[in-house]
Write a structure and sequence with these properties.
With 419 residues, the protein is mostly beta strands. It has one domain (4-417): TolB, C-terminal domain (Neuraminidase), CATH 2.120.10. It has three helices and 26 strands. The N and C termini lie far apart (51 Å). The model is unreliable at 1-47 (pLDDT under 50).
Amino acid sequence: MHFVKLKLILSLGFITLFSACSIFGSKQNDTVDDVFKQGNIDPNLVPNSVSYVPIYPYITNVRNPLDVIVGYDELVYVIADNDENSIEDNELMIFNGKAELVYRLAILGATDITQDRRLHTYIAGRYYSVPDKSINLAAVYHIENLAAGKPKFNDTLKHFACDESRRNTAFRGQDDIDVQFTGLATLFDNTLYLARTGPRNDVTGIARPDNGVLIFNANGENIGFANGLTATQSSLKSAAGITAIATQAGPPQRLSGISTSANFYLALGNPNYALEYRAIGIQATFDPDQGLVYGENSSFLNFDITKANRFLYESFRFKQPTDIFFAPDANAYIFVTDKVTDSLYVFTNNGFEGVNPPANSNVKKQIIVSFGGSGADGKASGPFNFVDPSSVCYYRRMVLVADKGNNRICRYMLNTDIQ
């Protein structure tokens, strides 16, 4: 039995209407125009010639947003935690391009979401393993037809049975209760990566360590584990305390041109581990004997100060990253949110912090456009401020940030991308 209820907010006729317009609406918008006008005169709003500017309306009718994505169906999916003291009130909220809530779905303990190219949606949450609800364990709910308003629940990936190495092992009590599924991401062929954390990380046993990445095919079968990562140690291939995972495949839906790479990126935000590097890229290499082997991405070790002033792999660059996202377009930027610094960071695909300078610019280095913090008033309520940012995603040059502490989803675009 799934502990789920559907609340249909608007007529499903919105789907047809919505498909005819951009998810983010027209940029011919009085509010947006006002922001740009103010940006021309207010150095606190747009501090650099190249920078991100806010795109209104923000999505504001969410409480404690934990995750945000734009699906291949071009809808905005948000996981909200309505009561941080209970797992009963977590839900999925779905918005159209006008920032209007179109329907919502309650999912027990929901924290993370992703969608594959079939428009199948995966939501990480919890399930009650006993009838009296005294024990709940990690789970991933596999749902079809959400965009049509007729959710169909397929195979639910339940800890610990979904891990092939645990099929013949007994329940471990509190150790299994403490296991969490902390990130979801899909590849071009609908392979699912599932990030997991937990207390048992003995690499000599039959069962895989809790800290790591499980791999599932499109049918929900556990076909592998990201072997080669270190479960508890600080390294450039660490899986200690994963808080998010991202791949190079993402919307919009394309018949060709989507990345076929099996590489992925990890945010390691668990403060219980002392880590030098907390936002890393993992490279998948095919070995004739072992299949895919996962290891460090050495390309991020290039600290070329003639091209950039800051880098992804600087020691202790991040405090407690909550999310990481790879832009699946020609820019290939990497985005990281950090809850301690309340900031969004932007890097190129080779780890240089900043964005490419305009073609007519005299600037030769990457232009740093990372931003956040408490702001001049210390209240962190301005358009460039965050309180505990929990998630970031990117779609058609638009960046969305789940600003958890401000109960909103913020939207931004580089001013050089706006014509």
